[in-house]
Every structure is written in C-alpha cells, then in structure tokens.
Design brief:
The protein is built from 13 helices and 16 strands. The chain is α/β, with parallel strands linked by helices.
C-alpha cells in the first residue's frame, strides 16, 4: 500500500470511528485501487496508537476507553503454558528434545548455579544466549507473578489508564511484560517500550509475539544509561535491574523526567538482604535529590521525616505451581559432566516458584497509598524510641514483612517513615484485640495502643511487644 492509500485509510478511520466500528472491509471500498481488507487491517493495527482505537475480536476497530483501567485479580497460581512453550521451543532448537538430560542439561544446570552465585555475591553477569535461556528457566515465572501483584494495587487505586504508556527498563526475557499484558484487560490500549541491550532481547521478542492485538510492544536494544526515553509514560518499570547499575539513583532521576505528571515509577528487586536494602538506599537518595515521593509501601507517616534504618523489607506471596520446564530440568538425567556436589535429580534445586520481592513505588505528586497520618499528641514517633524504652506507648507503623520468626513468637518489621533503627513487632500474646497484627497484609498501616518497647542487644533493634494489654487496629 502506497503513502496516498495509507492516508486515505487513516482519514476514513478518523471519520468512521466516531460513527460506527471501523471495518477494514468497508474502508477498502473508499480507498483508491481498493486494496485488500487485510492490508487495510494492517495499517489500522500499525496506527492504532495514533488513532486511539482498539481491535475487537470480529476484526473491527472502536475507540479505546478513556478511563482508568480495571482488572480482576486474585493472585497468580501458575505460569501460562503458551509462554512456557515459547521457552521450550527455544531450548529444543538449541539443544534438541532431550535438552534437560545429559550434557546439555548439565551445562544449563551449571550455568544456573553460576547465575545464582553471581547474584548472591553481586558480581557482573554477561547475558549471552545460554544465560538468557537459563534466566528464563529459573526466573521467568516468579517475575511474571511479582509484577502483577504490584501493578494490581495501582489498578485498584485507579492509577493506570486504559490507554497506558509503559516503559520497562531492563526488560529481561519478558516476565514483567507478560505479567503486565495478562493483568490488564483486553480493551486496554497499551504502548509497551522495552529497554534491553543483552541477548535476553531475542527471547523477549519471541515472548512478546504471544501478546494480544491491543498490546503494542517495541524492543530497544540499548542500555538503561544510554536510552533516551520519549515520554510521557504512565508507568516506568525497573524490574531487577537497579542493583546491576553503577549509579542507579542517577538513572532513576533521569527517567523521572519522562514520567507523566500523574505517572508512577515501580522498582522491583530480589528479596535477598543486599538488593532489598540497596533498594531502600536508592529510594532515599531519589527522594532527597528529585521530586519523586514514596507512594508505597514505605510511606512516610510523619511529614518532613525520612527513615535511616536498615529496613530489609520484602513481600512474600503464595508459591506458584512448578512449571513443567523447571520440573524437567530438575529431574533431568545427569551426564558425565555433572558435579559431585550436585543434588540428586528431583531435589528441587532448579525449581523457583517463590514469589518474593522488594518493591518501591514512587510518584511526582504527593499522593500515597496510605492516607492515614498519626495524631502527634497521641502517638510516639519511632525516631524517638530511645526516650521510651521499657515503657508502654501508642505507635503507628506500616507492616513491612510477613512473619520473620522461624519458631517462637511471630515477628514483623514495622516502619513509620521516621525510624533510625529497625522496629520489630513481637506478637507475644494474641487476643481478639490484637489479632489484626498477624492478619494485616504487607503495606497496611496499623495503630498499636499500649505496646511495650524494649531494646534488643542481639539484633541492635527495638522490639515492640504486642501482648494481652495491646490493641492493634488497621488504619485507612
């Protein structure tokens, strides 16, 4: 189709979209030379963003909704087989149908061990083709789930438009992209830009081939530092990438310039101590040096105060079902190249379905996920905890962990945004008046009345003892 015909298609579409569904079979009759309806449909798909139209199942196009997106979300139980097939097809193409067994399986398992060790010790990783496949084998399902838990909260708060522009910086092999796609409704018109410089981009592009007709992806093979974002974006996502950058706060600040005035930056990191605490350091630097404020989860409940505690804070969600490709790799027949230290087949070493992550959600406006602010005349601040050790006081705090105790009394990290030292709520005695402490979700604001504050020498932290004399209530 030549340029003149293309312009005629667009002119007709602009007129008809306000009258009735745009049908390619109708439009072709109004275009010189009467191009085939399939050619007209392709032009409409390519120009869907400029026309603000979505394609329906019957092949017609209608105006995209101009409202906040909605989504029904009840958690993530499993990784979709359609995406799993894409990954396995790549593995079969590279190593053959017996990819989990023998020499090929040994090489994949060895590389996954190297990846895990590099992440643990914060060593640089070079993402060649084999590493990209191993990254997908081990991390793809959990990253697919994690982004949905975070984004669903923003959708519930009305902060994601139906016509959404999303930038995914360090997109990897596609876990976050696929999670975003599956969470948002079919009638959402999504512009998805992925920044990914490594061999991960090859697998990412194949994964994006499984997305729907109204999800419009582009892959930019550039580094986070060199890519020039063309905003404004409604969502800027950094998923498991900030910990790999030499100056992460500087990069975040630059991308904040491409954020819409009512847009959101989401930063996701692994739940391990180094990266989770590193995320809080980045968050505090970004807050101090840019116009970004903390929307969730570590909301500053006291105006003008910022925390300086270690805050190893992360979210734990229900495990997913084990994807068949992880089970096949884990149970694969070991070859002569297997190490003597390797776990026996089926031992679970190569299964990764734990949905655990650290998260920071930042915005340019003053909006926060928690509107509650404590009454300073009735509530003690955590940064003054040294003044009331061994006393019973009223405290307010965000619940920032699940139960951290392996045995004994349940233990939860709390933060009010002022704390200089970590505070842990010890559920020493549960009652009907304080059971909310255990039942509250991560990120919920709580008020603790008549809690006993003690100093813990071993942990160099404050213990907030919740017993039969303590009342715990949710706050909104």
């Amino acid at each position: 189709m030549n340029g003149d015909q293309r312009e005629q298609v667009l002119d007709n579409a602009k007129y008809l979209r306000n009258v009735r569904p745009v049908d390619p079979e109708e439009i072709c009759e109004y275009v010189s030379g009467q191009p085939h309806p399939a050619a007209v449909r392709q032009v409409l798909r390519e120009e869907a963003l400029s026309l603000s139209v979505i394609e329906q199942e019957d092949g017609t196009f209608v105006p995209a909704p101009d409202k906040a997106a909605s989504a029904t979300f009840h958690g993530v139980d499993s990784f979709p087989e359609s995406y799993a097939h894409v990954l396995e097809d790549r593995l079969v193409a590279e190593y053959g149908p017996g990819w989990p067994d023998g020499e090929s399986g040994d090489r994949l398992r060895a590389r996954i061990r190297e990846l895990k060790d590099s992440y643990l010790h914060r060593r640089d990783v070079t993402y060649d083709e084999q590493t990209a496949l191993c990254y997908g084998l081990y991390h793809l399902p959990a990253y697919y789930a994690a982004v949905q838990y975070v984004l669903s909260d923003l959708v519930a708060d009305g902060l994601v438009p139906s016509q959404a522009r999303i930038l995914d910086v360090g997109a990897g092999v596609g876990g976050p992209a696929l999670g975003i796609h599956d969470l948002l409704p079919d009638d959402a018109l999504v512009t998805y830009d992925a920044v990914e410089p490594s061999a991960n981009a090859d697998l990412l592009e194949q994964m994006l081939g499984e997305t729907g007709r109204n999800f419009h992806p582009s892959v930019h093979r550039r580094t986070a530092e060199s890519f020039d974002p063309d905003g404004p974006y409604d969502i800027v996502l950094f998923a498991n990438v900030l910990n790999e950058l030499s100056e992460p706060a500087t990069v975040v600040a630059r991308y904040a310039d491409a954020l819409a005035a009512d847009g959101t930056i989401i930063a996701l990191e692994p739940a391990d101590r180094n990266t989770a605490m590193g995320l809080r350091d980045i968050e505090r630097t970004v807050e101090r040096e840019t116009g970004l404020g903390v929307y969730a989860p570590t909301v500053r409940l006291w105006p003008g105060r910022t925390p300086s505690s270690d805050s190893w804070s992360f979210v734990t969600r229900p495990d997913m079902e084990v994807p068949y490709f992880q089970r096949r790799l884990d149970e694969g027949k070991r070859g002569d190249g297997a190490t003597t230290a390797e776990e026996s087949p089926g031992g679970g070493e190569f299964v990764n379905v734990d949905v655990q992550y650290a998260v920071g959600v930042w915005r340019l406006d003053d909006r926060t996920a928690v509107e509650y602010r404590p009454d300073p005349g009735q509530t003690a601040r955590m940064d003054t905890a040294g003044d009331y050790v061994t006393e019973r006081v009223n405290l307010a705090g965000i619940k920032l962990s699940g139960n951290l105790a392996e045995d004994g009394h349940p233990l939860y990290l709390l933060g009010d945004g002022s704390q200089a030292t970590d505070h842990f709520a010890v559920h020493a005695e549960e009652s009907a008046l304080n059971a909310t402490l255990g039942r509250a979700d991560y990120g919920e604001p709580l008020r603790l009345e008549n809690a006993l504050v003690l100093w813990n020498d071993d942990e160099e932290a404050y213990n907030v003892v919740v017993d039969g004399e303590t009342v715990v209530d949710r706050q909104r």
